[in-house]
Amino acid sequence: MKKITIFKNWLEVNKQFFRELAANKKIDNKVKNIDVQGLYQVVHQQSAPCFFLSTGRCGTKLITKLMNLAPIIQAYHQPDPELIYFSKIAYESEHNQKIKIAIDCARYQYTRNCFLQDKKYIETNNRITFFAYYLAELYPKAKFIHVIRDPYSFIKSGLSRKWYSGHNLHDEGRIESKEASRWQQYSRAEKIAWLWQETNKFILDFQTKMGEGRAISIRAEDIFSSVLENKKLFTFLDLEAPSSQKIKKIISKPVNVGKKSDQQISEKLLGEDWLRIKKIAQQFGYKLKD
Fold this sequence. Notes:
Distance between the termini: 39 Å
Number of strands: 5
Order of helices and strands: HHEHEHHEHEHHHEHHHHH
Shape: globular
Helix content: 40-55%
Number of domains: 1
Number of helices: 14
CATH architecture: 3-Layer(aba) Sandwich
CATH topology: Rossmann fold
Radius of gyration: 20 Å
Largest sheet: 5 strands, parallel
């Protein structure tokens, strides 16, 4: 890691420390005038958090900076616990009360503290994706934004970062096909391709069940380049969008840029999941090679 990167991270940690001191003071002042006995129920029924759902590598760090332009928003990119391993457990479990309790324990303090500060809690961490149904149930007013990225770029990024190599710590939380024999025969490129289509399919199915009032989709490429598309996100959240100038300043500086890759992605390389990838990609205007 470069020294400048270490310094920036150190500076951000210290800034966060002082922000939390100020937030805690505000919270302490607020609770002096309320009965906290029923606070848990109030927070769940009245707060309206927003969760960004994605495969990861979709510009979520940039989105966090964009969201934090609004004073009423408190956006987090990777809040603790990050839920790397447990996101996989959530994917493998269906209608599991223990998973619902776990995600409630992991995020209630964040949503509560934002509620007490009259702020909106937003999380862009992709590990939250497979908890979506539980979060929708816990927070009836919550909204969800699906971020999708061009599959070729996503697969290249995953390959360059050694996904599914067994030597990447985050691999312990990466989902796998339930067809074990088939999965073992997959190349890394095929596994990452499967991850793209399976995750986006999960989100699209969830979005259909939630309806447009609670869930929408946006392309990562539009977030990187379009002021208008970014403003639509704030409109969806019933918030006033920051100025075009402020948005331009954020999106003009790439964040968490991926490693360059000369890997050529083709239909043959992606294997039998190609048609499912293509079907989803075409819904969002991605033109893939035949």
